[in-house]
Amino acid sequence: MFDSPMDGKSTEAYITESDELQLWSFVPLTDGKLTFYSVGDSITVGCLFDAENYVYGTTLKELQQSSLAYGDIFSNGDFGFKLTYNLKAGKRYYLGARFYRNDDYNAKFTVVTEYVCSEHKYAVSSTVKPTCEDYGYDVYTCIGCGETYKEKLAPLGHD
């Protein structure tokens, strides 16, 4: 799902300037629910932006006003942030994370994404061919979240 350096699970945000916002760009392949949060002892904020309407901002107020979803220490009750939002397939979004205070920089913190499809889109990902006597199967994998299921293929019979 991510086409910038985030594996869709977790990664480190490395902030080098006091007002730096690290961004990850992505287009979900299916409709679904995204949860984005930070872990650890760093006081952080996170935002979800619509790429078509993204407005660059450096203050927390500017980030909060231009985001689709926003999370910080006050909305999460912890040092980190947590936000959840329903996404539409094919639309570009940005995830952003930064330190809450301007004096917490030149450091790292971990961010995590979780994505649950609201409607799976399956494609055949592998096939075990049937033999004359044994069943085979196709493995179908959701292009958005990776969930799989198998569908039996009948034995071919003897010719």
Description:
- The protein is mainly beta and 159 residues long.
- The relative contact order is 0.25.
- The mean pLDDT is 86.
- Helix content is 7%, strand content 46%.
- The strands form three sheets. Strands 1-8-3-6 form a four-stranded antiparallel sheet, with no helix packed on it. A four-stranded antiparallel sheet has the order 2-7-4-5. Strands 9-10-11 form a three-stranded antiparallel sheet, with no helix packed on it.
- The N and C termini lie far apart (45 Å).
Tag the structure with descriptive keywords:
elongated, mainly beta, 11 strands, 159 residues, 7% helix, 4-stranded antiparallel β-sheet
Number of helices: 2
For the secondary structure, the number of strands is: 11
Q: Strand order, main sheet: write it out.
A: 1-8-3-6
Share of β-strand residues: over 45%
Q: What structural class is derived from the secondary structure elements?
A: mainly beta
Quaternary assembly: single chain
State the helicity in percent bands. Answer: under 10%
> Main β-sheet: number of strands, strand sense, barrel status?
4 strands, antiparallel
Give the termini separation. 45 Å
Low-confidence stretches: none
